[in-house]
């Protein structure tokens, strides 16, 4: 009963936001979920827009790697993030290696759990093909095609779903022209065969930092394509915002599918002021963002304190949140003003 009371109280506090703030709510004052309000998303120019064409900025949370943090990919946790944290979008980060899909194909069941829960709860969900140590997305291109064919067949009819087809391409030989774009042009058609409309997000070179490169050689022939930008507040500063600004000016639609309060390593402190500077830039440019990550593994970028909620139940109290978790929760609940 206590947990139910807390959730209702938190929802009431969220609903007390101004009408202008309703666009930043997971559930509005009329009880409508974000998916009920926005519908099937679309890209107009550089803007992510509602089904009706209104620009929108989504804000949300990423799982850690599902191979270790899959316990949180369930309805109870996503409901708590929706109602208490005001999360609008959940990212299911399915690593390819590091104990992920290539070694353990059954890990896709955690993606399925995530999508099913998101559909039931009326939040958006990103299906993330989370390449990292593999670097070049072409390394497991055939497996990616098989995976996204299955996901598009299963979920293409639902407006909740967003596809992130390569998380962080990296390596000197993993260029946009010769590696990433050809990979995307192989994967996108199999998704579009079954899902003609939902958003597809494509990674960019150098761990999804060189978001300006698609400006010179964009993917053509398909609607609703966006490009990934990742940042960590302790590592990536104004220079990367300048890269992003140039990309936007050149017509590149950006979605920040991963950003953290720490350094890129996941540690070395919580850089609150630097993170807020990034959020100001994203707000100004109406760019959606997802915080990394829901984990209890002790990383300073993790949202839970070390070993908290080992069973994945949600309902967290302040003492179970890390410094980053407390900070991000306040941002998502609109308790910290973004200038």
What does this protein structure show overall?
This protein has 12 helices and 10 strands. The protein is an alpha/beta fold and 339 residues long. The strands form 2 sheets. The chain has an 8-stranded parallel barrel with strand order 3-4-5-6-7-8-9-10, surrounded by 4 helices. A two-stranded antiparallel sheet has the order 1-2. Strand 6, helix 7 and strand 7 form a beta-alpha-beta unit. The longest helix is centred in the middle third of the chain and has 19 residues. The chain is globular. The N terminus is likely disordered.
What is the terminal-to-terminal distance? 38 Å
Structural class: alpha/beta
Could you give a short account of the major beta sheet?
8 strands, parallel, barrel
Low-confidence spans: pLDDT under 50, at least 5 residues? 1-21
- For the residues shown, what is the average pLDDT? 94
The order of strands across the largest sheet is 3-4-5-6-7-8-9-10
Envelope shape: globular
SSE arrangement, N to C? HHEEEHHEHEHEHEHHEHEHEH
**So how many helices?**
12
Please state the CA-atom Rg, rounded to the nearest Å: 18 Å
Total strand segments? 10
- The fraction of residues assigned to DSSP E strands is 15-25%
| Residues in helix, % | 25-40%
